[in-house]
User: Fold this.
Amino acid sequence: MKRVITYGTFDLLHYGHINLLRRARALGDYLIVALSTDEFNQKQKAKQSYFDYKTRELMLDAIRYVDLVIPEETWEQKPDDIKLYKVDIFVMGDDWEGRFDYLSEFCEVAYLPKTPEISSTMIRNDNLNTTAFESLKNSLSNSMDKQT
Ligand code: C2G
Assistant:
């Protein structure tokens, strides 16, 4: 059995994440996702995810390509994870190209092309803009109603 591992926050799950997980799983027979905890996000990645860890874990657990979800709590845990779970391939999107080459001491390292033009940040910003636009529209129409 070929075991694959990947790491990430997977916030506001989108098709870029699914593309990554599908391709990672296709490299082996078993896919482990090390999911960044809320604390790791805040303290080490300067990220505030929209969904908390339990919710992000629930969503990943529902994906057919994912066989196991474990917590990612530190940058340094990767070698131990690879040994503990007998991982054959470490996979990340190519926005991380080269950053984890040191793990080739323990297993194969693969970087897969990121899915273009989609990100959790984009979804969050689009949502904020839409919300802001809606509230502006509402306040404008309210003020116009008052003038009539
Ligand atoms: N990804 C992708 N295409 C996108 C967006 C993301 O292929 N349009 C990939 C990323 O390259 C990453 C995975 O999906 O491999 C998860 O992305 P993030 O949740 O943004 O993960 P990140 O914050 O990069 O955390 O220790 C590693 C870190 O935990 C990685």
About this structure: The mean pLDDT is 95. The chain has five helices and five strands.
